[in-house]
Amino acid sequence: MSDQQRQSRRPGLSTIAIHGGQASNKTHAHVQPIYQSSTYVFDSVAHGQSLWREDEYGHIYGRLGNPNTEATASIIAALEGANLPNRPYGLLAASGMAAVSTVLLALTRAGDTIVSQKSLYAATHSLLSSRLPHYGVNHVAFDGGRLDELEAALDDNTNVRLVYIETPVNPTMALTDIRSVAKRAHAAGALVCVDNTFATPYLQRPLELGADIVVHSTTKYLTGHGTVVGGAIITGDHALYHDRFLPTLITYGAVAGPMDAWLTEQGLKTFELRMARHCENGMAVARFLEEHPAVARVNYPGLPSFPQIDLARTQMDGFGAMLSFELKGGYTAGVALLDHVRLCTLAVSLGTVDTLIAHPASMMNFKMAREDRLRMGITDGLIRLSVGIENLEDILADLDQALTAAARG
Ligand SMILES: Cc1ncc(COP(=O)(O)O)c(C=O)c1O
User: 0.90 exceeded by the pTM?
Assistant: First the structure.
């Protein structure tokens, strides 16, 4: 390798995740300490003023900034911008929904419109369709697979500030073409925000595909061990970060705490390793389910039967470990399957080291009107699986026994 190649070589994801957050650690502790402090001491009034003016870097008060949240946010930003010339800016929020709300509130005012996919994570959908309209922010939805519908929404509405997408979408796994959406949104003067929770920067880096903003529920793969509820906002645009998202986050107050940030930082150290195993197991479980007599259909971006496999191949670096499948026995079979699993954990959430199984119709979308749920592709017998990193044979054996028991009734 020449000197020039060595200098221009970019660090890999594990190197970023393991070394990327140490900048603020001045204590010589090997592992970044937890700065569990609500406020910070000024040397003098002049020192305090210099911090308020941002003439120098430092901390004032926990809601305004904390070394742990900043370190973790900067690692996630670096992962999202792994191939960009400049590291994007990151903020850590108290939850994935705090990150989503901060972005939407920061970018819109009464009279503006947000265009989003029809099918979205349920709370995001509810925020857009039921909450923001109270503040005069309109919501128009398009089918994520239909760019003509997006174009119509952009043509028919004025003041479209943002196009908001989630790909792969929870829980149907349908993909939206980030590059094409960004091209059309930018032509109409709108920004693009992508919820990258399902794919993670291991599989997909939306900023590299033309998006302006990425949001995450760090509750999921980025923390990885189910120990934290958290969120992140990433953007390459300094003005968006500094003048919009940061003031909105600290004014509404949905900031992450230092302990949660620290746990996410520890989780990130094994992020790349975990994701490789997640992907391996995800593909094998998808293939197994597709062959199973109790299963009508499997939605997994890496299967040849997946209608958008070509988009998955160009937009993503792999196919992940999230999948959903349709049981032939519908709602009753869904409930029976979940009541029979022994190894798979019966719980909402996703992206943890253990395999999590959920039946949206009887669990997270239980309160939604059936017609609304069906409109989002969430059928009665749809099961969502977040394939963990346990030994594959054990996951397959548990699914097999539970599917067999559920089919017996
Ligand atoms: C795709 C997606 N986005 C956002 C969220 C919200 O994240 P949180 O629960 O951390 O607020 C979730 C939660 O499941 C999700 O699946």
Answer: yes
